[in-house]
Write a structure and sequence with these properties.
The complex is a heterodimer of chains A (334) and B (549). Helix content of chain A is 75%, strand content 0%. By secondary structure, chain A is mainly α. Classes of the chains: A mainly alpha (334), B alpha+beta (549). Chains A and B meet through helix 5, helix 7, helix 9 and helix 13 of A and helix 1, helix 2, strand 12, helix 9 and helix 15 of B.
């Protein structure tokens, strides 16, 4: 197992190099002088020269790329042009906000999606199956903007159960330690604030989970149906095993690989930040951070934001690959 | 393997029950509450505040919901309204604008005198004023601020450069102290709007001790003399400021704390107001106005209008290089129809490039009526060949234009009716501005909100040939207009100045570089309990007198 993980990590090196190179090109691919484009038409010659110097644009490209790599390896992602802060320190609160929401949404999506898929497969062609699959179809094509506003209207304004937006009750703010508020509030022993933070997660979490839930449900159903036709399931049934055990233990384990692939992909997507959900629920996540950087032509932030998101995606893929071998010991990579 | 599976399912079960518990407590509180309005309001507060609602001990906290976060809290270097909204309450300027207009009022300076040649301004400062960090406010502090602005680059100190520098040279040649509480500004040439300029939010006086120590980071820990001092900034989320106990004006501010929350979507922001999470919301859609007026728990607040939304016709591009075609487009567009349909009547049809509230507005200019026949005749006379044009629609709602895309559709139809085929084009906002600035659009929708209520800040800024490549997006250039505007800048006799602007507006009307569309009234909404909030036409509101009852 360790041997395998080590090998996979080695394989990552060319992938990461390729990725950093593409991200590196983002600024350099701007037609004309990037410094001029960033600063605008009115910029004075001195400030353009200063920015060129700061971005290292006067060096040959391979020197620039090497410097860039060196920066990344030492945790230096550059400085935001808009806020003049180090991106390395500035980005974490956004990333933490996205992380908390994405994980919460994926937990919902996995619990609901997998169970719906399993039950649909178990009782194929039953009313549950039909309803679940119609709901899943609707879910896949759900306009998140509309769904989010509807949730707010029903659960916040009419029922008054949940807050409409944000991460905390601003009149009683959470003191950030890790910026993962569920953890911060518990660390400070503020169980009341923990509940408030959790409540703030529910509406955006549900909106964000909608599409992954639907995709996971459909994939689970398809994969389970295939497995349930195989001989070992019939054998297990013939031995008198309970249907529940057969499905949740034997069949599910064998159906899990494609489901896991989908879960991995969806998690990666959610960690990239969901701009629509973050906008409707004013969630200060990485998606809006990058999106707003685009509006301000803040190239270093765009570059680093994409780098981080791409890196997370690759890591999730790695984890999924490792999990394959945990689930199915026949899978070996040589 | 079996164990792993069991612990996984246990974990999932645990997570599910936490979610259920959370929902459950929410339901209980709901049952315990009295009415749903107050209930949602205090739901997340501790229950003690609910019982003490009427005692004066309850801290006065205002949560202000707005569309975007601030860029920086150093007023000298920012240009966005969302930054000024906060700095206006942390910093103070030598002079203030009136509560809801742009008349000049005392600020940190109690009195001021202008020399007869208009080249020297003497300000007498308030005494006993302190910055939040304890530094004394005096003549020396003012001088240090002005020197900081003067030393800054054009990109960093945008407003100082555009207001107080002409082609890179300083208009303020000298600032000196006369005793501790008198400052004398010497100008290189008379500047008519000098006092209005100095009252603008970017010229808030900052603590010299603080900005010298902080350098570039001053925007993260601003220190001024204002009624509120900075507490915390959670980026893209909230900015908190609290009452400055040693504020120099007795009994003010009334609020203990103000929290600015960024809620980007207009509908979501109104939802947050309805749910009681925020007390005041900016950027209300005109279409939501009626519903808010009908709701007794809320109040609708109109910001006095000081803006213009227009359709620019790039004067250097075909077919708009021909003045007859530009006039034809002015006849072709049904402006009243647009105002009725998309501003819900909360706007005034425009005929000049600046709003009527501004001194120098020429009301004698006859607007182009909606007359498609006349437009067709003019197009024929101009020899317009029917070549299609691109019609650029702004991608984001602005105070002066709530729904660019829909208004563009109406304009497209109006143009088609007189025989000008057009294609609607749009870009992401920063790209949109950049491309129009470069003159790449044929016809484009844009607008402007005034900074200081001076005619110069509309006509010169938006239509003088000096500002081509900057805010003169239409590439309009007329030497006669230019001469009038330059003369007006240094004219100190108000009546002569008004006359110069009136003349310029007549020429601009004939040249028709734009189709002026509307002067809108931006809307805000607040809980009924919010008292004393007076929105300012510039968009930077002082929250000094606001209270919650």
């Amino acid at each position: 197992m360790l041997h395998y993980i080590g090998k996979r990590l080695l394989h990552l090196i060319p992938v990461l190099l390729g990725m950093t190179f593409i991200v590196f090109l983002i600024i350099r691919a701007i037609p004309g002088d990037p410094a001029q484009v960033i600063l605008g038409q009115q910029a004075s010659a001195e400030s353009i020269a200063a920015l060129r110097d700061k971005l290292g644009l006067n060096n040959p490209w391979y020197v620039q790329y090497f410097d860039y790599l060196k920066g990344i390896l030492t945790g230096d992602l550059g400085e935001s042009l808009r806020t003049r802060q180090e991106i390395t320190t500035e980005v974490w609160p956004y990333l933490a906000a996205t992380f908390e929401l994405a994980i919460f949404a994926m937990i919902l999506a996995v619990i609901i999606g997998m169970n719906a898929g399993i039950i649909s497969a178990w009782f194929q062609n039953s009313w549950f199956d039909y309803i679940a699959m119609v709901v899943a179809l609707v879910g896949v094509s759900m306009p998140i903007f509309w769904l989010g506003l509807m949730e707010q209207w029903i659960f916040s304004i009419n029922l008054g159960w949940l807050p409409t937006s944000g991460r905390e009750e601003v009149r009683d703010p959470v003191t950030a330690i890790t910026h993962l508020y569920l953890i911060d509030t518990l660390l400070q022993g503020r169980f009341d604030q923990f509940v408030v933070s959790l409540k703030h997660l529910i509406l955006p979490g549900v909106a964000l989970a909608t599409i992954p839930t639907a995709i996971i449900a459909r994939m689970t159903r398809a994969s389970m149906l295939e497995v349930m036709r195989s001989d070992f399931v019939r054998t297990a049934r013939a031995k008198g095993q309970k249907m529940f055990i057969v499905i949740y233990k034997h069949a599910l384990k064998n159906a899990l690989i494609p489901i896991l692939t989908v879960i991995g992909l969806q998690t990666g997507l959610l960690l990239g930040g969901a701009i629509l959900t973050e906008t409707i629920f004013s969630w200060p996540g990485i998606g809006r951070y990058i999106y707003e950087a685009i509006g301000f032509r803040d190239y270093p932030v765009i570059q680093s934001g994409i780098l981080i998101v791409a890196f997370l995606f690759i890591m999730i893929n790695l984890i999924v690959d490792v999990l394959y071998t945990v689930i199915d010991s026949r899978i070996k990579y040589n | 393997m079996k164990n792993k599976f069991r612990s996984l399912s246990l974990f999932l079960l645990l997570m599910l029950s936490i979610v259920l518990v959370a929902c459950n407590t929410a339901t209980k509180e709901k049952e315990g509450g009295t009415t749903s309005e107050t209930e949602t309001d205090t739901e997340t507060d501790t229950t003690t505040t609910e019982t003490q609602e009427n005692t004066p001990a309850k801290p006065q906290i205002l949560v202000f919901g707005r569309g975007a976060d601030s860029v920086s809290l150093d007023p000298a270097i920012v240009t966005d309204g969302e930054s000024f909204k906060v700095t206006q309450n942390v910093f103070e300027t030598l002079l203030n604008f009136g509560p809801q207009d742009t008349t000049i009022q005392p600020g940190l300076a109690k009195t001021w005198e202008v020399s007869s040649d208009g080249l020297s301004y003497t300000f007498t400062l308030e005494e006993g004023v302190k910055f939040h960090d304890g530094t004394d406010f005096n003549a020396e502090a003012v001088i240090k601020n002005v020197n900081r602005w003067k030393a800054g680059t054009a990109e960093d100190f945008y407003y100082f450069n555009s207001m107080f520098k002409a082609e890179g040279t300083d208009i303020i040649t000298d600032v000196k102290a006369d005793g501790d509480y008198k400052v004398i500004f010497t100008l290189s040439r008379p500047q008519a709007p000098f006092l209005k300029n100095i009252a603008m939010s970017p010229f808030g006086i900052a603590s010299p001790t603080a900005f010298e120590a902080a350098g570039d980071a001053f925007g993260d820990k601003p220190v001024g003399t204002g009624p509120f001092k900075f507490v915390e900034w959670k980026r893209n989320d909230s900015i908190t400021i609290e009452k400055f106990e040693d504020y120099w004006e007795e009994g003010l501010p009334k609020l203990d704390k103000v929290i600015f929350r960024s809620i980007p979507d207009n509908s979501a922001r109104l939802n947050a107001l309805n749910a009681g999470e925020i007390d005041l919301a900016d950027g209300i859609n005109p279409s939501d106005g009626k519903g808010i007026e009908a709701n007794s728990a809320l109040q609708l607040i109109e910001r006095p209008s000081m803006n213009i939304g227009y359709l620019g016709l790039t004067n250097t591009r075909k077919p708009f290089d021909n003045v007859l075609v530009r006039q034809a487009v002015n006849y072709a567009i049904n402006k009243q129809g647009i105002v009725d349909a998309f501003f819900e009547g909360r706007a005034q049809v425009a005929k000049n490039p600046m709003p009527p509230s501004i001194s120098g507005y020429n009301d004698e200019v006859e607007p182009y009526p909606y007359d498609p026949e006349k437009a067709k005749a003019l197009l024929a006379e101009a020899g317009y060949d029917g070549a299609p044009i691109e019609l650029w629609a702004m991608p984001v709602p602005r105070p002066y234009m709530p729904d660019g895309a829909k208004v563009a559709e109406v304009i497209q139809k109006n143009l088609e009716d007189v025989g000008i085929p057009s294609k609607i084009v749009t870009f992401e906002w920063a790209t949109y501005l950049e491309k129009t600035k470069n003159g790449e659009a044929d016809a484009f929708m844009l607008g402007w909100t005034g900074d200081n209520g001076d005619a110069d800040n509309f006509i010169y800024t938006l239509l003088d040939k000096d500002n081509i490549g900057s805010n003169n997006y239409a590439y309009y250039s007329n030497d006669k207009v230019h001469d009038l505007l330059i003369a007006a800048q240094s004219e100190t006799d108000e009546n002569v100045r008004i006359d110069l602007y009136k003349q310029a507006q007549v020429i601009i009307h004939e040249d028709a570089p734009w189709v002026p569309l509307a002067h809108s009234t931006p809307l805000l909404a607040a809980k009924a309990e919010v008292k004393g909030f007076l929105p300012h036409p510039t968009g930077s509101d002082r929250l000094l007198n606001v209270s919650i009852e």
